Amino acid sequence: MPLSRIRDLNRPTHVIEFSTKEDKFISLAVNARDTNLAVARQILKAHTAVLN
Description:
Keywords: Plasmid. By secondary structure, the protein is an alpha+beta fold. It has one helix and two strands. It has one helix spanning 37-48; strands at 12-18, 25-31. The protein has a two-stranded antiparallel ribbon with strand order 1-2.
């Protein structure tokens, strides 16, 4: 199995969203064990509007 496919659940997962111009970004660190990553992405997208 390639090393890039191994996920360590003891480390945070970072979800990153860029502004429309891609000159700013928000990074959200979540616990992969108890966080729905799809919901985390939706929340991050909603807050990215502040950057634009």
